[in-house]
Amino acid sequence: MQFALQTGALDDMQRSTVSSKDMAFAEYMSARQPSLLRTAYLLTGDRHAAEDLVQSALAKLYLSWDKVQRRELLDGYVRRIMVNENNSLWRRAWKRKEVATPLVPDAEAPADRHDHGEKSALWEFVQTLPRKQRTVIVLRYYEDLSEAETAQILGISTGTVKSQASRALASMRARVHEQPVLSKDWEER
Question: Is it true that domain 11-93 has CATH number 1.10.1740?
Fold first, then answer.
């Protein structure tokens, strides 16, 4: 096989196996990438970090593509990769040395027509939550996962999911008056 790879002498069966794997992965990636990008954005709070996170998650998925037995569970598997990768990014020393600035020195790119939540008051509000609480809120309410599914993805107990969500919601309720746009909506309820 080594010689065949070096000389390019693969038979049709080997080519079809490689291409069918690549095609299946490409189909999955093109179908799910927008949704994964939205989830990654909600986890990271930054468009560029979200793109990097999705790219890393899809690269890891591709390496394990043949090992995944149950294709119906791919979304959960990729979400788990994204959560783990996002958590590990914050543990790296170089990440802690980075400082975000409110203004980019270059000219700003034109805004996308689709609002990814960057301008919404609610998303700004959610971004103020601690990372673990924000992750639980994103998976529970944005991805619409159950408490058990969220717990499984994060590798924590269902009780921890409940307590993190409860603390996040209580924190948001206590500070809703700081957001005039949101406080109108809360008062109407």
Answer: yes
CA pair distance 71, 28, nearest whole angstrom: 10
As to burial, measured by CB atoms within 10 angstroms (0-12 exposed, 13-18 middle, 19+ buried), residue 118 is middle
Q: How far apart are CA 176 and CA 189, in angstroms?
A: 13
Give the span between the Cα atoms of 95 and 3, in whole angstroms: 43
CATH number of 119-189: 1.10.10.10
User: What single-letter amino acid sits at 24?
Assistant: A
Residues 65 and 59: their CA atoms lie apart, in Å, by: 10
What does pTM read for this prediction? 0.52
Q: Give the pLDDT of residue 121.
A: 72
Residue 175 confidence (pLDDT): 82
